[in-house]
């Protein structure tokens, strides 16, 4: 009996995992088909305008809530109008799939940012050493 339950839950969880993977895959397709790509850029991480939001890595529930608010007009600032027609032409189910795809598009830090952080760390070390030297004098 225990084996049966274990097997049943394995199958069940396997299916849930698969369904989510499918959502991400479909979301990726929809992201291009619905033209989200044209404004938010590749993987949601390269918006065409600096003031357009980056979407990669954003929590899916949050993103869906924002898109629904833009759709209904609850969120309405100077930029929302740009998005409105697009979300109006996309079902909530499709928006959820796209959001699931975007959630896992985490941007790797740019090489120069990592290098700058390393330089900063070195500079902080130097300052600490200076401070220690001053303290001993
Ligand atoms: C014509 C350009 C354009 C297109 C196409 C577009 N967006 Fe946007 N999107 C924007 C702008 C501009 C904002 C900021 C709106 C605001 O501040 O209310 C935004 C906001 C968002 C937000 C809210 C981000 C946040 O941090 O709150 C999400 C999520 C989003 N877009 C997803 C999408 C998806 C998914 C699609 C495709 C179905 C899409 N967008 C298509 C321009 C666009």
Notes on the structure:
The protein has 137 residues and is mainly alpha-helical. The protein has a domain of 78 residues: Orthogonal Bundle (Cytochrome Bc1 Complex, Chain D, domain 2), CATH 1.10.760. It is built from 6 helices and no strands. The model has no long low-confidence stretch (mean pLDDT 84). The site of heme C has 22 residues, from helix 2, helix 3 and helix 4. Heme C binds next to helix 2, helix 3 and helix 4.
Report the total helices. Answer: 6
Q: What oligomeric state is this?
A: single chain
Specify the CATH homologous superfamily of one domain. Cytochrome c-like domain
Instruction: Name the average pLDDT.
Output: 84
Bound molecules: heme C
Judging from the principal axes of the Cα atoms, what is the shape? flat
Overall strand count: 0
Looking at CATH, which topology of one domain would you report? Cytochrome Bc1 Complex, Chain D, domain 2
List segments where confidence is low: pLDDT < 50 over at least 5 consecutive residues.
none
Structural classification? mainly alpha
Order of helices and strands: HHHHHH
């Amino acid at each position: 009996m225990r084996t049966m339950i274990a097997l049943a839950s394995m199958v069940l969880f396997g299916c849930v995992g698969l369904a989510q993977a499918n959502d991400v895959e479909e979301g990726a397709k929809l992201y291009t088909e619905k033209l989200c790509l044209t404004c938010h850029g590749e993987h949601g991480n390269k918006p065409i305008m600096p003031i357009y939001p980056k979407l990669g890595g954003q929590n899916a529930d949050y993103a869906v809530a924002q898109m629904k608010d833009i759709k209904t007009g609850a969120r309405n600032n100077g930029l929302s109008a740009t998005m409105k027609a697009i979300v109006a032409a996309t079902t909530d189910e499709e928006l959820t799939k796209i959001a699931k795809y975007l959630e896992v598009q985490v941007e790797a830090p740019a090489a120069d940012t990592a290098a700058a952080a390393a330089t900063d760390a070195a500079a902080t070390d130097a300052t600490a050493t200076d401070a220690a030297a001053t303290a001993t004098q």
